[in-house]
Specification:
2 helices; 103 residues; Mitochondr_Som1; two-stranded antiparallel sheet; 5 strands; alpha+beta
Length: 103
């Protein structure tokens, strides 16, 4: 894993906008989809995975983002996808193996 020396000098903040949508019925009985934006902020540093900082970042009225100095100790450490261990529910795996053996 890359060294974490001077992370603040090689980091930047990036935003993604996600939407949460609900299905409702209009007064006329027709389906109505309502979506609400959810802004998410990430700190992206050279050589290490991005970390979400939405809950710890302060955003002012002009949209400027301020990250508290002690935030690095509070944030989880990320790791590259190639190092993520994926756990599979054995019952799901067994049912897939059974259906493949019948085919």
């Amino acid at each position: 894993m890359a060294e974490r020396s001077e992370p603040e000098t090689k980091c930047y903040v990036s935003e993604i906008m996600q939407y949460s949508c609900d299905l409702a019925m209009s007064q006329g009985g027709k389906p109505l989809i309502r979506c609400f934006p959810i802004s998410r902020l990430f700190r992206i540093c050279q050589g290490i995975p991005a970390v979400e900082i939405t809950r710890v970042a302060d955003v002012d009225d002009k949209g400027m983002v301020r990250i508290p100095q002690d935030v690095s100790a509070a944030l989880p450490t990320g790791k590259p996808w190639r190092e993520v261990t994926r756990y599979v529910d054995p019952s799901v795996l067994d049912s897939k193996l059974e259906s493949n053996s019948r085919a």
